[in-house]
Amino acid sequence: MPTYTKRHPQRSRDYDPQRDPNDNSDYEPPNPSDSPCGTWDLPDVDPKPSNPPCDCCKPSPKQPEPCQKPPRSKGKDQDCCQQILDILRKMPGGHNIRVKKPKQSPKVKSANLCCKLPIKDAVIPMLLLFLRRFLNQTPPANDFEKGIQAFLASLPAEKLDALKIGLDAYDKLPPSIRECAFETRFDTCDNESLLDPQFIFKVWLNEAIHIGRASIFDTQNGELGSGQVRPWDQTFTRVDNPDPNITLTAPWPWICQVNPGADGRNWFKNTEVTKPGKLPLNIFRFEDYEFSKVCDQIPDPGDPSKFTFNCHNERPTVPPPTPTGGFPSLAVNCQNNQRYDFPDPSGTVCLMVPKTFPGQGISLRGLNFISPNCKARLRRLGGGFQDLVLDCGVIGDTETPLMRDGKVVASCEVRDIIMFTIPEKVKIGVNDVPVPPGRYVLDVIVPNDTNYAPKSGPAPTEFVSNDVWLDVLPSPNQEYRVWTDDAFCIEETDGLGSDEPWFQAYSVRFVPSGTSLVAMLPQQETTILRTDDVDSGESISFSAPDFFHGKFAIGEVFALSVYGLEVDSDDAAEQQIKDFGDAYLLYWKNFFTGLAVGTDVTLVSGAIARGAATGATLVAGAAFLVLVAVVGLFYAGWAPADPIGFDVMTFDSLSLFDLTNPTTPLPAAFSKSFGELSLEVNPQNPKKVQPGATQALYSEDHIYRSDDEDSTYKLVYRAERI
């Protein structure tokens, strides 16, 4: 067994082992407003705070108060006005009458800002701080600001005017809303340390990581924090003991689900999900993709180049009869492990062992991840490689109650989350050795920071979870294409006139390189569609460029965020919106490029190595941040445009390989919400098998609904191998 260092935070002198480990009533979180004017600590990004706190007693994040979204001032749907308009259009010359859609007031939209993000946005205040200094002709504080000022000075007048509109809209926000939604220390602190590109990059990275975690794992704020202590009974078998079974009560950690890619999409379980709480298996929903499949290839009689697949759940293998004519041996377990045997009415079927590859993030759901210093341990079956002991980030479940009907809730209903990244290479001696493919045993080592003793005698220093299996595969060497080419207006926005929808996309690529380097590749803006005169029940024709076209590097993750607006068809207003969006995206690209060049991007690889982020959470946060913080939030402040859709997608080579594999089951449908906007994702069934039967065209419907606008739009996204 390899050795590894257990990091136990030093407990305070008045630590009481008899105290309820979940009692945090005397915990006083630091108040950012108490900090003097200047930079502040960002431990998720740079874990070197000026006064290191004691992690052992720090509670998991408390559930924030529910955000109260302001009601719409008045409905926009006026049936009587529509009838009058229909009458006028039937009169001579009336067919040319066009009416603009009414827009939500900036006051209502800006009030919604507090409900939008899991963390105060700092990107907008940072951009405006540099813009304000440029307009005030303040001398640059450093070379980074010198470059920003040179860029701003080179902008055409209309672009600079668009930036000024954003600054004016921000300054006119009510102070209470600005304080709620934005990091106002950039507004009120006149300290040149805030202009340091190293610090600004840390602030951006911190925000991207928080938003990515909250978005992917559907948590309230994306904060790291330990899970609650949930003791439960577990029975152990002892060898060579008169009493072979012993039942002990403790906060035993348990892995309930595995999410390869750490993208929050496909979660894999096995039958041991029932053990905590001794729950029946039939209360757990197992998705089709969680079952191992056996597929028969069937040629099309009319076209030999076309095929279909008849796939069914794999069953345990039954050995053939013995040569002497005796009875055959009993069927072996699925995957050679009983926990992957699933009882089906037709007989036992096999569950899938999750697949991953070096460089990919992994997230786990479970319970009793009660320490911020949890470790994920990977051991290769059959040996041949050293054990991997990896740092993890922990997000405690703040929603599932600790007690119900007088009993501790300690089952796989709980959703503590752990995330980590399997390295591409590990250092052995003086060499960087690639992590080999194979089947690995995964468990979680949880330091006993609470000093919980399951029996008399000293408390154990750590608890070890159950183990699950993980198949590490070579990274697929395949080219892919991701695009959209189909849209439909299911229900237009309320009010007179037709819709003028405008859907934009913003993509980010993240590439780890070797053991320490990170590349944030150029970010790309794409206009999916911009059209007018759209009514309910109409298809929308458009031609958009590919979002992704090419191969993935090892460990690369690609994220795509989509933002839909219903804009004013007035030419001047539309041009104003376009100039505004173009100017701020151009400003952000230049700003970010300067940051990436002038700062230590190993901060990114460090956050991933510590488990504070994965490639998926990072790119999701970065893509989310640009469209929401840089574009979307400013539209709320002034622009004649109402949001009608929002979306964030992440892809890597393994997820696209499975999506375009004709024999891999479809992922599950899902839905989520973002303030007044909601999203429903439905994979199209079946996949369209391509000639040769080695690949398939994958398509899924993304349905965007706005509660404020009573609108519903559908876009179809597709992926294929090329």
Structure, explained:
The protein is an alpha+beta fold. Among the domains are: 232-291 and 351-472, Immunoglobulin-like (Sandwich), CATH 2.60.40.10; 475-721, no CATH class. The chain has twelve helices and 33 strands. A hairpin with a 2-residue loop joins strand 29 (670-674) and strand 30 (677-683). The radius of gyration is 28 Å and the shape is globular.
How much is the average pLDDT? Answer: 82
Helix content bin: 10-25%
- Number of strand segments: 33
Q: How far is the first residue's CA from the last residue's CA?
A: 45 Å
Q: What characteristic shape results from the CA principal axes?
A: globular
Major beta sheet summary: 8 strands, antiparallel
By helix and strand content, what is the structural category?
Answer: alpha+beta
Uncertain residue ranges: 1-15, 50-64, 514-518
- In terms of DSSP E residues, the strand content is 25-35%
Radius of gyration: 28 Å
- Total helical segments: 12
